[in-house]
What does this fold into?
Amino acid sequence: MDATTIGKVIFGAGGLLMLFGAGVWLLGRAGIPFGQLPGDLRLEGERSSFYFPVVTCIVLSVVLTIVINVVLRLFR
It folds into this structure.
């Protein structure tokens, strides 16, 4: 790969990251509890805490799988 191709890939990845960030920001502004869904694990002790968003990860995985499949079918 030459530098032009690598630059295009990095530029495209940055654009996708910006869109994803804007979507998360808009979900937060709309009051949707993204990252605080029922089923997300939150353990808190006196000196430490642990948080793992299990359900949020599953929802995100399903949504991204659908989006990627739609995009790939459009470009075939």
In short: The mean pLDDT is 88. The two ends are 23 Å apart (CA to CA). The chain is about 65% helix and 10% strand.
